[in-house]
Write a structure and sequence with these properties.
The protein is α/β, with parallel strands linked by helices. It is built from 13 helices and 17 strands. The protein has three domains: 149 residues, Rossmann fold (3-Layer(aba) Sandwich); 87 residues; 200 residues, Rossmann fold (3-Layer(aba) Sandwich), CATH 3.40.50.300.
């Protein structure tokens, strides 16, 4: 593979009329660099990748890609190969990119639609790739094993960290702990200073009261006492002001770290609905889209209250078709013995957040599923899912980011908690912070879970205990 000369980036800025994604970004990319671009959805990650590709211009600044650079690029949304599945589209686009023999590889969320077999194959390929790799990904396995540097787009800057993913997260946590410790110390100092100021004022008041009868005889003593009191008050006041300034600076540093906020959900349910009983029972089942032509056959599945089951299989093996059958989708034909819950007892969440009405307000989404709640109860519930400001609560669903839609879908499920929750590739196209929010909520969810996901780290985090492996009928 031909070694390319360094890529020079100088004072790069990306901004739009309503926001600045980042500015004053200067760095050098040497051959063999392995970089992951991370940050919140809508922060400019994909656009930065396209700026490196040369298909989009930055708002300002300069980027010099050497003439000996051969770039292979695979976008997040692949418009080619329309008759193929998501995983097949990626494999064909990747094959096309590698046919150029690139010394720079740009990948945007490459693991989104890959089954476990193709995921492992991609990991091996990326680990063995000798050129420069720049990737956008929320896949923690990829971040841990395939990159050595992180560009974190946040708060209008691109922060560069060299090291592995766990070191990066640990450094953020250490910084946060250090700042929080300093803030705690300042709070003690503030209370102590305020206490001494109050004591000084009380002492001065007592001294003044004692001298009322002999003001003229003790005027010099009184003046000295007043001067001492004034001096003490000014000193204590300055200390309080200095503490407030330092506290503001530390609070700003803390907010800039942008570690994910923690969601502690409250599920609204009748405890009797979640006692141990069978919710899904399928014996000798088969499903397909036309009579007697199954996509999957010989399905045997039992899901009881509290069970957590992952549906696995290669791309095209019928995972989504099985989910549609459990949801009693009329487009799917079923054979065999089936016992499934009513639709009202099933919650469904996919990567497109199809349960949300795009023209509704955030507030209305919860009002619809909890019509008896007061305005305050709805606001408190939304607050638990980080919708706090009036403009956030009164925003239209269509205007929400992917992460916000995910949080709202989770809030919807928590407000009207189903006995069975079905998840279909919900970690696709979300940032790391939103993924952590989803994990927090699902770990607390009391019902049964059926999940389709190729993300093994995610399955471990939400404590999946059982697996159903589907095999495609050929």
């Amino acid at each position: 593979m031909h070694i390319h000369k360094p890529i020079q980036i100088k004072e790069l800025e990306l901004s739009f009329p309503h926001k600045t994604c980042f500015e004053d970004f200067t760095t050098t990319i040497n051959y063999g660099s392995r970089i992951s671009i991370i940050g919140r959805n809508g922060g400019g990650k994909s656009t930065l990748l396209k700026i490196l590709l040369g298909s989009i211009e930055a708002t300002s600044g300069d980027i010099k890609v050497p003439q000996d650079a051969i770039i292979g690029y695979v976008p997040q949304i692949i418009d080619e190969f329309r008759d193929s599945s998501g995983g097949e589209r990626f494999n064909e686009a990747m094959t096309k990119a590698l046919s150029l023999h690139p010394n720079i590889l740009l990948l945007d969320e490459p693991t989104n639609h890959l089954d476990q077999r193709n995921h492992k194959s991609l990991m091996r390929m990326l680990q063995n790739y000798q050129g420069t790799l720049i990737v956008i990904s929320h896949d923690t396995e990829l971040l841990r094993n395939c990159v050595h540097s992180f560009w974190h787009i946040d708060n209008g800057r691109v922060q560069i960290f060299s090291g592995n993913y766990d070191d990066y997260i640990n450094e953020l946590k250490l910084k946060r702990a250090s700042i929080e410790q300093e803030l705690t110390k300042l709070e003690y100092q503030k209370k102590d200073t305020h206490k001494r100021l109050m004591q000084e004022q009380q002492r001065a008041a007592k001294s003044k009261s004692k001298g009322t009868k002999n003001i003229e005889n003790n005027k010099w003593t009184k003046m000295a006492a007043d001067f001492s009191t004034s001096k003490a008050e000014k000193s204590q006041g300055k200390n309080l002001k200095d503490i407030a300034n330092t506290k503001n600076q530390l609070s700003m540093q803390l907010s800039e770290l942008r570690l994910p906020e923690i969601i502690t959900p409250k599920f609204h349910l009748n405890s009797g609905d979640f006692k141990n009983r069978v919710l899904v029972q399928i014996t000798g089942g088969s499903v397909g889209y036309s009579p007697h032509q199954p996509v999957i056959s010989n399905i045997n599945l039992s899901v009881s209250s509290g069970d957590r089951v992952a549906i696995l299989g290669d791309n095209g093996s019928g995972k989504t078709t099985l989910v549609k059958a459990i949801l009693s989708d009329e487009s799917v034909y079923k054979e065999g013995d089936w016992s499934v819950p009513s639709k009202s007892d099933i919650g469904y969440l996919d990567q497109h957040y199809s349960t949300l009405g795009s023209n509704k307000l955030v507030f209305e989404i919860i009002k619809d599923v909890a019509p008896n709640w007061t305005h305050a109860e709805i606001r408190n519930h939304l607050n638990d899912f980080l919708f706090r400001k009036n403009e956030e609560v009164n925003n239209k669903v269509a205007a929400l980011s992917g992460g916000e839609k995910a949080r709202l879908s989770l809030a919807q499920i928590a407000a009207c908690t189903p006995k069975l929750l079905i998840l279909d590739e919900i970690t696709n196209n979300i940032d790391l912070e939103t993924k952590q929010h989803i994990v927090q909520v699902l770990k607390s969810y009391p019902g049964a879970i059926l999940v389709i996901s190729h993300n093994t780290d995610f399955l471990k985090e939400i404590e999946i205990k059982e697996f159903l492996l589907l095999t495609r009928i050929t």
